[in-house]
Amino acid sequence: MLKFLVFLVLCNTDALSFLIDYPSTKMLTINETNSYFGYSILLQKGNRGVAIIGAPRKRHGSEVRGSVFKCDLLYLRCSEYSRIMKEKGIYPRNRTGDFLGSVLDGDEITGGKFFTCAPKFIIDYRGDYYLNGRCFYVTSSSVTNEVARTVLPLNSERQISSAPNLYYDAAFGESGFDIAYIKDKNVLLTGAPGKSQWNGALVRTSLVSYTSKVFSNEREWDPDSFFGYAVAWGKFIINSPTIWYVSGSPRATELKGKVVFYEENRRLKNTYLLGEQYGSYFGASLLVIHKSQGGDDILVGAPLYPGDSWDEGCVYYYKNRNDGTFYPPIKLSNKKSASRFGTTLAKTGDMDLDGFTDCAIAAPYEDDGVGAVYIYFGTHTGFVNDQFLRIGPSDFATFYPKTVIKGFGVGISNGNDINNDKHNDLAIGAYQSGQVFYFTTKQISAVRMNMTSSMKILYTSTTNFSVTYCIMFTFRNGDRNKMLSFFTRVILDDDRILNRQNITKITTTKAHDVHCATQEVLLKKDHLNVDPLIIPYGYRLDQSQDQLTEDTFTVPVSYECGEDNICQTNLTIKSLGTSVSKVVFGINNEAKVNVEVSNFGESAYQTKLYLKVLPEVSLINLRECDFENGSYVCLVARVLNGKVKKSFLFDLANLTPNYKEIPIHFKVESIGNDADLSDNELQVTIPVNFQNNPYLDSRSLPEKVFLNKSEEILKITHTFLVGNQGPSPLNLNLTILVPQVNVSGIDILEIKSTDGTVNGIESDCKFSKKEVLNATNIVKLQVENDTKVLSCVESLQNCVSIVCKGAYVPKSNKNAVFTLKLTLHIKPTVKFLDNVNKLVLMSSGLFSNDTTQFYTTASTYLYTVPNIIISMPLWIYLVSVIVGVILLMLLIFTLYKCNFFKRTYKEMIENEQTPENMEQREILQEEEEQEM
């Protein structure tokens, strides 16, 4: 049966919602619902396409080891790869097992190699159980009983490291948590998020020598950051063969998440991508959009991003500037609570054959755990939120009415052309219910319909002419054999037409063939309307319920300006002023420009103004304007004789602070020849002013501390904050000065790092040595004689200057924060203090704003405890002992006199409480009362 999707030439992108051929959906499953069948998927094409599917909780007897299956997509039969693991791991009770099959990657053709891992594989190492993990290399996917080669990424690493502190190194590495196969390099990248106390690592393994190199977070020790949770690779510099490795750390930077880039030589790049929300798991999934010339883009998943509710999830799309840096991200999301959008990212290739790479994003817990997958279609600007196709189980539920589907989307294959129609197909797993669904795509057809006229220009004397309309279509995959039938309609409805009618036809044609028809048009005599004659026409597939795709054909009308029919105009334009004399950045978001257009010649038909503005400036009143080829085209008058005034309102909200003025260029044109072109253009320039109110603050951690002379070092953090309370962005120009003193060849103060962020984006700072401080408003600290000061205003002390600039601090709630991490060497510090007990350590921050300079210091007060030994005479000890003995004897004597040591006294008291004694006491008491 012929299945295709018509993509209309008028850019009807809604048609892409029918890209998937749901009636042809196929389901794969095995007889074990709790096996997580479909957790990972690899599609391979060939004479008979196959799906390699991971089931990481597949049971082998009583053991949950996991497994991998090869499934025939024609007959829907699955067979297990029986010899992937040659050895058995350790299986403690209530553990999930090896998790074999949790990841898959490899060749895209049947019989090619593939890789899978068991990240929870446990080994017995000298009597201890260690969660090393391991991966496996199957050289031919066609052979299900092949003994796979074992890949041990962490084999050369120590299980436990003892220097400088004892910690787990490879012991709980979980290598194979994620993998990425680089075919051209014959290299396998594996993630090991548990290595080095769960600091994590990315491991590159050569598939030739089986040697591995470990990439770790070298600049900072950050346990539990899970570096290597997701791994990827790409060529991020255009026209460069250099490959960068990418790793996600979803718990780094105080649980905000981080993505790190490395070069092949293990050099850590300065490019970082930082999460914005605590606990969002930014970096839990990665997808690089590879481009033929390099300059790859990247998508980063944050599946626990709360959004407006909780666990909505989102994906950050970073478009490359072609130099390895990225534009601010576009946030893609489905805005559905608990869906965890972005859990899985997959490359689908160009599914709709429009020349742009597409991608798949999973939300596996959408709709109460059912799940959904979103296909985002690439455009010339990358990915946007309104260009996607949602695939959910409800779309094909009628074909599997009694099937319960859960966790749809955790496993997504890469796109692959299984049925050889040049459109990539897709497989999606529902791991919680144990199914995989295989989807094919429809052929996409591009249809073109146009119209021509027997007369290029109509005159008032024209009584008839003819139009010819043609239709043709092509399949994007190049198919030339199929035929389609179209319903076409031409509407003759202008007041100047005598034979007004709707002309409809059914046309059947073959791909790439052009089918035409001609229609005569009769006109009224002496029609004086000089507006162009417009003929609407349209088409749709025959028997389709879709609306027609419509266009119009325009026949111009002669303006009869002289014998040559060319109007001799004389247009001019001048400025009538602007609504503001200057724009204050952050306050004025709009500006109006008033102009006057005049014509001193023959009638100027179709008089238009062409407006050229900055890319960040847009025209608001677009009612009579269109945007064409980078300029706004505005109709001034259909026929202009005399003068007309026009006002144009511009939106300045997206203006960037690097502009000092706003140029606006006007050019007026009309049909005909202008007698003088020198006055047809106008340049209006509006100056841009900045009003900001910067402030500078600092703090020290710790602020006060006693030096422990038994320790070697003391870690100190000085933080400087630059804020802006004004409406305009603030140009950052911060200098941090750190004093330097050397005692016996050792620097007292060592700068470990300087980390800066401006509006959430990392900022680099440059170091330089300075001996002279040119800051006129720094006040020297007045201290007592028992105090020394280590600062950049003291004489005979050098300073290190750290300069941070080049960024803009926006207004209000966004700040630039720079953290200076220092190490104080205690022994030389004590030597420097000599007999002084107090040291004030000051780092200085200078911020320059045009002619104004702001100053602050971060001060740490250090105290030493003098060693005082007080001797006590021996006689004091003797007297104390004697007095204590006398007091003890007095206590014993007192207890004796109180009969404390006589046990019979207790019995005597109890005997007095007998009933007889109590009765006698009551009688005596009554007699005493009577006598009274």
Please name the defining characteristics of this protein.
932 residues; mainly beta; Methylamine Dehydrogenase, Chain H; Immunoglobulin-like; eight-stranded mixed beta sheet; seven-stranded mixed beta sheet; 7 helices; 7% helix
Radius of gyration: 41 Å
Number of strands: 66
The CATH superfamily of the domain at 152-338 bears the name: Integrin alpha, N-terminal
- The CATH class designation of the domain at 152-338 is Mainly Beta
**Continuous helix count:** 7
Strand content: 35-45%
CATH topological fold name of the domain at 152-338: Methylamine Dehydrogenase, Chain H
Biggest pleated sheet: 8 strands, mixed
What oligomeric state do the depicted chains represent?
single chain
Uncertain residue segments: 1-15, 771-777
End-to-end separation: 127 Å
Per CATH, which architecture of the domain at 152-338? 7 Propeller
Average of per-residue pLDDT values: 86
Rough outline: extended
Query: Which structural class is indicated by helix and strand composition?
Result: mainly beta
Helix content: under 10%
Describe the structure.
By secondary structure, this protein is mainly beta. The chain contains seven helices and 66 strands. Helices cover 7% and strands 45% of the residues. The termini are far apart. Strands 44, 45, 46, 47, 48, 49, 50 and 52 form an eight-stranded mixed beta sheet that branches. Strands 54, 56, 61, 62, 63, 65 and 66 form a seven-stranded mixed beta sheet that branches. Strands 53-55-64-59-60 form a five-stranded antiparallel beta sheet. Strand 7 and strand 8 form a beta hairpin. Among the domains are: 187 residues, Integrin alpha, N-terminal (Methylamine Dehydrogenase, Chain H, 7 Propeller), CATH 2.130.10; 111 residues, Integrin domains. Chain A, domain 2 (Immunoglobulin-like, Sandwich), CATH 2.60.40; 122 residues, Immunoglobulin-like (Sandwich); 170 residues, Immunoglobulin-like, CATH 2.60.40; 45 residues.
